[in-house]
Design brief:
Elements lengths: L1 H25 L1 H15 L6 E10 L10 H4 L2 E9 L6 H16 L5 H13 L6 E6 L6 E7 L3 E3 L2 E2 L16 H4 L3 E6 L10 H8 L11 E7 L3 E10 L7 E12 L5 E12 L13 E2 L7 H18 L5
Parallel strand pairs: 2-3
Antiparallel strand pairs: 1-2, 3-4, 4-5, 4-6, 7-11, 8-9, 9-10, 10-11, 11-12
Helix pairs in contact: 2-5
């Protein structure tokens, strides 16, 4: 009798375990949506939109500069946004979006670039393999289409000519806004393809703090003349004190308004606990941008990145 009961218990546990494992696989896209919505709330963008769907699509033509083209074929992921409930009127949404976008631009922050690089980070994909869209019932008034094809492009339609009621209360001086990890530089002279700078970055970031039994690993996700994406793993306490960290950095090269060259970077810091080892799954890490107590540390780290970029690219200026 006892043996029979034990067998039934084992069978029940085994039966429960299978769906649990499958659920983790199925919920990968749901996790991206959840993390992205949390980030939207941190940056007060949930007043405008929310992530509704994250799905696999046949990608747009990949740029020649994309080193992931052959490896990943034509598969990409698209995030579908929907307007916040109070913005059922597309004109009001266009007015509010323009207000926030222009206000952030005055602080040196490109909203579209910020949104796309954050999505790529959460999706664990190169920038060229993610896309953001949002369509309202009035496409001629408001629609979003943000993607990377040699540079970050946005075929957006934000029509504010007709005007709309501005009902958003956005704090442009909130700590998360002032601790965004990004910057851009207009260069006086042409710069070589970004992939040529990878050995320099690799050498520099391997000096970061790490556990004694795990050296810093700089993993390239995408490299070319106009883009360089990599993540730094096995970091411990570089920004967050004593936590395990993954640092993701995207660097892009483009033309500025004067026909010169512009270099820009955007970074995300993920952190997690773990006394003996870091979590294996990136989904078990938390975005430091969503933790108010880390804002000061992120702001300090952005200054460090700024100094690093000025040093590394100085010879190319």
């Amino acid at each position: 009798m006892t043996t029979k009961i034990l067998k039934l218990v084992f069978l029940a546990l085994f039966t429960i375990a299978i769906p649990s494992f499958a659920q983790k696989k199925i919920d990968a896209d749901s996790l991206v949506i959840s993390r992205y919505n949390k980030w939207l709330k941190t940056f007060q963008l949930d007043q405008l939109v929310s992530a509704a769907e994250f799905k696999t699509v046949k990608s747009w033509p990949a740029n020649e500069d994309d080193s992931t083209k052959k490896a990943n074929g034509t598969i990409a992921k698209m995030l579908v946004l929907k307007p916040a409930d109070k913005y059922s009127d597309a004109q009001d949404l266009a007015t509010a979006w323009n207000y926030v976008s222009e206000g952030l631009k005055n602080k040196g922050i490109n909203l579209q670039e910020l949104m796309l690089t954050k999505l790529a980070s959460y999706a664990e994909l190169p920038l060229s393999r993610v896309k953001i869209i949002e369509h309202t019932d009035t496409l001629g008034v408001f629609s979003l289409n943000i993607y990377f094809d040699g540079k970050i492009k946005n075929n957006n339609k934000i029509n504010v000519i007709m005007g709309g009621e501005l009902t958003i209360d956005y704090d442009f001086d909130a700590s998360p806004i002032n601790s965004i990890l990004s910057n851009s530089y207009s260069l006086k002279r042409p710069v070589a393809g970004l992939s040529k700078y990878l050995p320099i970055f690799n050498t520099y970031f391997k000096q970061y703090k790490h556990k004694n039994d795990a050296n810093i690993d700089v993993r390239t996700m995408n490299s070319g003349n106009h883009i360089l994406e990599f993540k730094i793993i096995n970091v411990v306490g570089q920004i967050t004190g004593n936590y395990n960290e993954i640092i993701k950095i995207t660097i892009t090269k483009d033309s500025d308004d004067r026909g010169g060259t512009k270099i820009g970077y955007s970074a995300t810091v993920l952190y997690a606990g773990g006394v003996f080892r870091a979590p294996d799954n990136e989904g078990d890490y938390t975005d430091a941008a969503n933790e108010p107590s880390l804002s000061a540390g992120l702001k300090k780290y952005n200054k460090l990145l700024d100094d690093t970029f000025r040093q590394i690219f100085h010879a190319g200026f």
